[in-house]
Amino acid sequence: MKISFCPSRLIIFLCVTLLVSPLPASANPHEYLLDNGLKLVIKEDHRSPVVIQQVWYKAGSMDEVNGTTGVAHALEHMMFKGTDSVPTGEFSRRIAAVGGKENAFTSSDYTAYYQQLHQRHLPMAMELESDRMHNLRLTQEEFAKEIQVVMEERRLRTDDQAHALLYEKLMATAFQAHPYRRPIIGWMNDLEHMQVSDAQDWYKRWYAPNNAVLVVVGDVDPESVLALAKKYYGRFSAGKIPSLSERKPQIEPPQIGIKRLVVKAPAKLPHLIMGYKVPVLKDPKNDWEPYALTILAEVLDGNAAARLNKALVRETRVAISADAGYSAIERGPGTFYIDGTPSEGRTADELEQSIRTEIDKIIQSGITQEELARVKAQVVASRTYQLDSTFAQAMQIGRLESIGLSHRDADIILERLQAVTAEQVRNVAEKYLIDDSLTVAVLDPQPLSETSSSRNSNIELKH
Predict the structure, then answer these.
(1) Peptidase M16 C-terminal domain: which residues (predicted)?
(2) Class of 4-246 in CATH
(3) Class assignment of domain 259-456?
């Protein structure tokens, strides 16, 4: 829910050497650190002649300040507007010309750019991506045009989308101090007053090799990729950027009571979102609650036989949909979501009470060993399926590295998920799914106009 997708001379050459030795040749992934602080993770996958390059910057909307919300996402757009050597639009044209794909995305925690193409074109992709890491051309003329695109994106994807608007208002209410309360795309007022200098300041502050992770996955030779990374990324100096551990902590004050809000927006039916504050993964080897919360979400909404769908949609028919979600991989505080749409003639209050009944059943009676075994089998199956995709492998590596964990934690996470007990699942439900950590958002549907309905059905934004 937190990711917004979009496409968009320091002349001194540095002799780049490794600060740490590479892992043994048999290790895969391969990890390197360049002198300028750029972390490089390479994973070999020789099943097809394809390569994925991703550059992850450890800066997202949570690093913004009031008055310039949305600047991380706005700069993502501007990254496709060219450099002195690569004119506007040329980046995308060159990737497309060799049959490749490219895009970018911004989240609360990070911003990332990627290309997927034949492995023989990796040098070109590295040359293009490294060029805009340091040499981006940010002009008033291009920014004035692109910020209008961003504002229209906000209108189409949030202001005119009732469920997205409800989620945005939920987050703004649930969090009192933490920057997760601000939308990734930014508040409209901030976008309307944003200047090119805001984007320039963001670029200078965060876009540097020592604040980035370069991930390469595919049909590659690690030593060749390392040589390319030295050639293209190694020539830039490190910036004066605090590491994740050095940045000022942004601690959310404890919630001391239930929060409720109602949002009026054009829609056919009501909608309900219940968000509980929960912990996230900080110590993969020793934490256990995030793993139990992950299993709990799967028990509630992991398959057609999961509790919410079975009880609320198929049996009582109080809802036409009911879902649960939780991510243990976040830089900031976690939220455990349960949401749903009541059936016609039923209310959001009835749905909330039905959800509470299902939670109480878990707290009072726990989950069955059969449920636990089924969910764990799904986790393993999902992991196996993920390994079939080079893009998903790169995403897993980049995401873990960008929030302060290690790509090597992936195996530990899987092992710890498989070790979760039924009692641990019951314990986290009892401890965290309580009113004192709960925010409830209800959509009060307003009449739909033909104009807005037609406009929303034709949304397609790509950069």
Answers:
(1) 196-378
(2) alpha beta
(3) alpha beta
